[in-house]
Amino acid sequence: MRLSALFRPPRRFLVSNMDTLAPLIVRLRLQSLPGYGACTFPYRAGQFAFVRVGAPGLSRRYRSLTMVSSPESGDAVSFMVGASDDWSLGLVDAAEIFPGSDARNPWAADIIGPCGRFTLEDRMPAGCESGPLVFLAEGLGVAPFLSMALTLAARGEHRRVLILWAARTRQELACLDDLIALTQANPSISTIPILSHDPLWNGRRGTLDRATLTELVGPELADSRSTFWIGAAGALTASVRRALGELGIPRRRIRYQPSFLQEEDVV
C-alpha cells in the first residue's frame, strides 16, 4: 500500500490554518486550491496520507499523517501533529510564524494518498456492521477515531461509539474540547479520558489495561456485535489485544494499526 501510494501524483493544497492545540501539538488544516473544487482528495475516515509542507526551514520530505477531519468536510482536510522528532518539532515551531492563507506568499502543501484500510468500510466482520464501536486510543493515536466519530455524526448515524482515550497528562489530550462538544451534540457517542501521570486530574486515572476495560466497557464486551479498534504504540497495542482476548473477544472483532499512526518519513 505504501509503495503504490508513492506513485500517485501529489495533490496541491493551501495551508489555511495552523492551530496550536497544546505546547507541542499542532492541528494542520489544508484547503484545496481555488479552481480545483471540492472532492479533490476523496478519503475514508481512518486513513492516512503522505504530506509535504512548504514551510520555511522545514524538510521537504513527505511525512505520513492520519487525517483527523471528516471526509464530509468538503474541500478541506486536517491533521494533528505532535512534536516527536526534528520534522514534527519544526512544524510546531513553524506555527508561530504562519503568515495566514491570505498572505502574499501563502504556504503550500502536497498530499499523496489516501492510504490504509483502518476504516469502517473495510473488513467489518459479518453481523457487526451496525454494532457498537469501541475506540481505544493512546495519545495522538486518537486521530483516526476523531475522523470516524465526526463522520458518523455528519452522516446522522446513531451508532453507539465509546472512546477511551489514554494519555500521561491532560496536555496530550489535544482536541478534547472538540470531542466533548461532539458527544454533547450526539448522545450515542461517549468519551472517557484516562490519565496516568497528572496529579491534578480529577477524572479517570490509570491505563488501558484489563481492569479498565472490564469496568468501563462491560456492555460492549457482552455485545457480540461490538468491534474494538486500537490506536496506540506497539507495546500497548499488544497488551490491549491480549486483554481483549482474555475477556472473550475473538480476533476478527479487533482492529488495530500495524504501525503507530503510520508516522514516518518518506523520501
The CATH topology assignment of the largest domain is Rossmann fold
Name the average pLDDT: 90
- CATH homologous superfamily title of the largest domain: Nucleotide-binding domain of ferredoxin-NADP reductase (FNR) module
Q: Helices and strands: which structural class?
A: alpha/beta
The strands making up the biggest β-sheet line up spatially as 5-2-1-6-3-4-13
Number of helices: 7
Radius of gyration: 18 Å
Fold and architecture overview:
With 267 residues, the chain is an alpha/beta fold. It folds into two domains: 2-116, Elongation Factor Tu (Ef-tu), domain 3, CATH 2.40.30; 133-265, Rossmann fold. The chain is 23% helix and 29% strand. The chain has seven helices and 13 strands. A seven-stranded antiparallel β-sheet has the order 5-2-1-6-3-4-13. A six-stranded parallel β-sheet has the order 10-9-8-7-11-12, sandwiched between helices. The longest helix is centred in the C-terminal third of the chain and has 13 residues, at 234-246. It is globular and about 55 Å long. The model has no long low-confidence stretch (mean pLDDT 90).
